[in-house]
Structure formats: C-alpha cells, structure tokens
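Lab meeting, item 3. Inverse folding demo.
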C-alpha cells in the first residue's frame, strides 16, 4: 500500500455560507478556521491550502459572553509616533464589524505564507446579503 500525497492541483474547493447571527466570536472563528484549513476533509495535509472558501454574513450580529463586550480591547498602531489606538468590542462592532471576525479567524490560522493564502479564502459581510451568489455556496450550520 502506498500513501498518496495530494498536490495543490488536485484539491477540490467548495463555497460555504455561514450565518454569524447570535454566534459567539471565538467558537465561530474556530470552526471557520478549521474549514479554511481543510481539516474536515479526509485528504487533509498540513502544508497545502485545501480548505473551502467561506462566506460569512451578519457579521455585526456576533456576540461575546460575560463582560467581554466592554472589557475586550482591540489595538492597532499607525506606525507614527503616538499612533497607538485602542477600542473595545462595542466601539469596533459599531465602526467596522467585519474586523472582529477577521482578527479572530487570523489568530487561529498558521502565521506565514500559508495563513495569508487561507485568509484570502474568507469573505465577511455586514448584512445578510453577499456578492457571491454566482458561486452557489452551500449553507452550513455552525454549532455555537
């Protein structure tokens, strides 16, 4: 018996639609990161981008548990002196709700070229409308 090593050209990718309404951020991000990696497939190899493309809708309706909406802080730096900025979950959700899920998913993917390639496979939208209906995504239910 021989083990067949999958090549990048042999990977079959699908489109998956995830509704983030009332989902907890970390649990949703963990499951989306697993789908992006391709860990749900029997042919998974850790060095290839073999996961599916994920479309996330209703990003503004995610939630955190406990006091985290007020206490959890998000930081960024402009690169200039005194360019350090911080805001909590509520402020970032009001200003740019897609960024919350983008940061949570990125934290659960491998860092480096593979992780950056995987992040190109996720599309996050504020409302319940998305621009990828031509890809005919398959809606899945995320247990949160």
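The presenter then showed the designed sequence:
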């Amino acid at each position: 018996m021989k083990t067949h090593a999958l090549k990048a050209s042999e990977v079959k990718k699908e489109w998956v639609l995830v509704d983030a309404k009332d989902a907890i951020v970390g649990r949703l991000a963990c499951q989306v990161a697993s789908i992006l990696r391709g860990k749900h497939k029997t042919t998974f190899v850790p060095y290839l981008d073999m996961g599916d493309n994920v479309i996330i809708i209703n990003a503004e309706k995610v939630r955190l548990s406990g006091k985290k909406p007020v206490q959890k802080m998000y930081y960024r730096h402009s690169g200039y002196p005194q360019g350090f900025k911080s805001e909590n979950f509520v402020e970032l959700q009001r200003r740019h709700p897609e960024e919350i899920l983008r940061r949570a998913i990125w934290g659960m993917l491998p860092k480096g070229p593979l992780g950056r390639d995987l992040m190109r496979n996720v599309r996050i939208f504020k409302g319940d409308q998305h621009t990828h209906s031509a890809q005919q995504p398959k809606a899945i239910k995320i247990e949160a």
